[in-house]
Amino acid sequence: MNPFATLEDISILWRELKESEYSKAEQLLTVVSDSLRYEANKVGKDLDKMIEQNEALRNVAKSVTVDVVARTLMTSTDTEPMTQMCLNQRWDIL
């Protein structure tokens, strides 16, 4: 099965890829697309069939795929992961 987006889509919808990112992005396109298929299958949906029948859904799948690939490429792999902490411990006001 083909990915829902292409390397060209990433360049158009996000930014031009660096030479060092092409191989990783190409692999991520397949992984992300298959992850979307898997999640749809878990709720009894055939995402590819749905996309064939709905152009808007095709664009949504492309957009989500590009977004996830872009976020993954932006994630640093040579530094400590980002952490989050609450500075205000007054949860009772929520």
Protein described:
The chain is mainly α and 94 residues long. 59% of the residues lie in helices and 0% in strands. The protein contains four helices and no strands. The chain has helices at residues 7-13, 22-42, 47-53, 55-74. The relative contact order is 0.18.
Q: What topology does this entry show?
A:
Layout: H1 7-13, H2 22-42, H3 47-53, H4 55-74
Helix pairs in contact: 2-4, 3-4
What's the gist of this structure?
This protein is mainly alpha-helical and 94 residues long. The chain has helices at 7-13, 22-42, 47-53, 55-74.
Give a count of the beta strands, DSSP E runs of length 2 or more. Answer: 0
First-last Cα distance: 46 Å
For the sheet with most strands, the description reads: none
What is the SS-derived class? Answer: mainly alpha
Relative helix content = 55-70%
Q: What Rg, in angstroms, do the CA atoms define?
A: 17 Å
| Individual helix count | 4
Average pLDDT figure: 89
* Beta-strand share of residues: under 5%
- Which regions have little confidence, pLDDT < 50, spanning 5+ residues? none
Which keywords apply here?
59% helix; 94 residues; 4 helices; globular; single chain; mainly alpha
